[in-house]
Amino acid sequence: MARVRCITEMGMGVDVHGRDATKAAKRAVSDAIRHSSLGFFRMLGKTANDMFVDVTIAVPDPSGVDTAAVAKELPYGTVYVTAVTGGLEIPAESGSDSIIIANAAVIVSFDDGKTG
To answer: What are the coiled-coil residue ranges (predicted)?
Structure first.
C-alpha cells in the first residue's frame, strides 16, 4: 500500500508556566489542524477515518512528551506521533519557570488504493 500525501501543516504551541512539553505539543497540533479544512477526502471516495496522520513534534526534551496524549488531539484517522529534539526553551529571568515552545508538523495522507 502506497500513501499519497495530501496536506502538510505546521503549528506552534507554548507552555508559559510549568515546563510542560506535552501541553505545548498538544497546543502545536491544535494550531496546525485549525489551518486546514479536510472536506476534500469525500472527492477521493474516502472517509475521515481513512486518513493516515503523521505528526512530528519538536521540543527541547522529546522524552517529556506523552505522544499518546498528543495523538488524542486528532479526532480521525490512524495517527502516529513522533517527538524529536527541537523547539525552544526560554529560561526565566529568575527561578525555573521556563517557557517551552513546541513545533508540530502534521502530514495527512491516504492509501492510493493500488495493490502490489
So the answer is: none
Read off the pTM: 0.87
E strand or H helix at 70: helix 67-71
Cell of 68: 499518546
Grid coordinates representing 65? 512528551
Confidence of residue 101 (pLDDT cuts 50, 70, 90): very high
Would you give the distance in Å from CA 11 to the centre of its chain? 8
Q: Residue 41 belongs to what domain range? A: 3-111
116 in a structural domain: no
What is the domain-level CATH number for residue 7? 3.30.1330.20
